[in-house]
Amino acid sequence: MEKSISKPVSIYALGGLGEVGKNMYCFENENQIVIIDCGVKFPGVELPGIDYIVPDFTHLKNNKNKIRALIITHGHEDHIGGIPFLIQHVNIPVIYAPRLAAALIKNRLEEYRMSDRVKIVEYNSDSTFKIGDFDISFFRVTHSIPDSFGVVIDTSEGRIVSTGDFKVDLTPIGPDIELQKIAKLGKEGVTLLLSDSTNAEEEGYTPSEKNVNDSINEIFNEAKGRIIVSTFSSNISRIQQICESAVKHNRKIAIIGKSMEKAVEISRGFGYIKIPDSSIISTEDIRTLKGSEILILCTGSQGEPNAALSRIASGEHKDVHIIPGDTVVFSSSAIPGNGIMIAHIVNMLTRAGAECITNSILADIHSSGHPSRQELRLILKLFNPKYFMPMHGEFRMLRLHAELAASLGIPLENCFVIDNGDTLTMAKHKVSVGYQVEHGVSYIDGKDINGLATAVMEDRKILTEDGMFIIALAIDSHNNSLMIEPSIYNRGVITRNNEKTNAELDLLIKNAIKEKLNSKTNFAELKNVIKDVVGSYIYGKTKRHPMVIPVIMSKN
């Protein structure tokens, strides 16, 4: 009998560990790489000018010939938002996605004019795929967006299960979580389980979507004027509940924002949002109705300056302006770092006469789609894995989830709390810590899909905090002499006496340049001399490290 050759499988994340966002998990052996999810993370105010943060794809670029498929668990931005940036760098032969996620991905790729760059195959809970050495199957879960799934990867070295984002909602708005299928997988044997940790700090059970419905109806019952609800366009379950409540309360729905319009259009086409055409109005028709007859649905719950809610709050939106009696509902919790921007929007809205609701159950949108500790215990018991890797969460969440697993009888040494880039190696049904792969982040500014390097962000941070000096001068490179004395431009650096500072700097720079020109030198050395002189002098005066940009012109 021929002895089978072991093909160890490496398991690692390029995003999603030690953070909430930019989820991307990879499964690699000597022949292939299969990826689960490719998401974005939304920046806070500490990253000026940045729209998205995505994983660094260097490792995948270096192993691009091994990539066989990208599997998507559901359609939230932190799981699909990075796809246009990924396929700009590497060829993805096929994307497997549930129906709603597939439609959202197609729409996003059309925005970036990439719809012909990748094949998209839809799957459901009965689908199975053979991808190289891996057998892939799925199980349905409940989450805050329809069509959410966990993924099973069967390999020669053992079975891997990834739950995706989920909660155990026994009274869901849509289909039930497939607990019987989960139990069957557990009974057959799971070598390694990767499970959602986002809500691992919360004891008990996450409130059912039915509870959220009650909260929405309460807001609609109490509001006398217009209701303006701001949320992420990918929170389909929440948009569905809000729209259906609006119809129930005889309110017409005005949708503001291209991404929101597209999300509602796709979801209505699939039957996830059930509202008649007669309930939807254009923004121009808002002024023809009473306030009690209107719901405005828009983006901007994170205080984003260019989003619809910000433009409404500042009076810059062409069709919608706040009037006294409006109720504005923020239907998503603040992403860390965005609190200041949200507070600014709330203040503008309140000043204009609106009542702002920021602390209802609606605002707990991210946590409400994820499992609390009793649900985590149930899933761990049903899967009963030999090894466990908590995923999708900040470090403290991952650690708490690992300790929870240990309390249920999984040996603590079999629970791996690892970071992005760390690998686990599965061989012959045993899992151990492996090597590290190249990882990091890339910053997306506007439509530039190549991403900005970390060095660029460091420069922006220096400019924001410490300011900058530009030193311009001209030299005669034949005579090694200074032709035009230094011109000093200062932006964002405050000293007690700017004229005196510039005069002293001028003298220091001239002396340093003349001394350097007396010996053999080059432009790089001259620039370094200027940076050293200016940097040292300004630090002595202000205890700051401004950016110093030398501009040297030469007469040849």
Strand order of the largest sheet: 7-6-5-3-2-1-20-21
* C-alpha end-to-end distance: 79 Å
Question: Fraction of residues in helices?
Answer: 25-40%
E-strand count: 25
Label the CATH architecture of the largest domain.
4-Layer Sandwich
- Cα shape: globular
Number of helices: 15
The main pleated sheet reads as: 8 strands, mixed
Determine the strand fraction and express it as a percent band: 15-25%
Low-confidence stretches: none
CATH class (first level) name of the largest domain: Alpha Beta
Domains counted in the coordinates: how many?
A: 3
At the fourth CATH level, what is the homologous superfamily of the largest domain?
Ribonuclease Z/Hydroxyacylglutathione hydrolase-like
Can you describe this structure?
With 556 residues, the chain is α/β, with parallel strands linked by helices. It folds into 3 domains: 9-204 and 370-447, Ribonuclease Z/Hydroxyacylglutathione hydrolase-like (Metallo-beta-lactamase, Chain A), CATH 3.60.15; 210-362, Rossmann fold (3-Layer(aba) Sandwich); 455-555, Ubiquitin-like (UB roll) (Roll), CATH 3.10.20.580. It is built from 15 helices and 25 strands. The strands form 5 sheets. An 8-stranded mixed β-sheet has the order 7-6-5-3-2-1-20-21. Strand 9 and strand 10 form a beta hairpin. The longest helix has 20 residues, at 498-517. The mean pLDDT is 88.
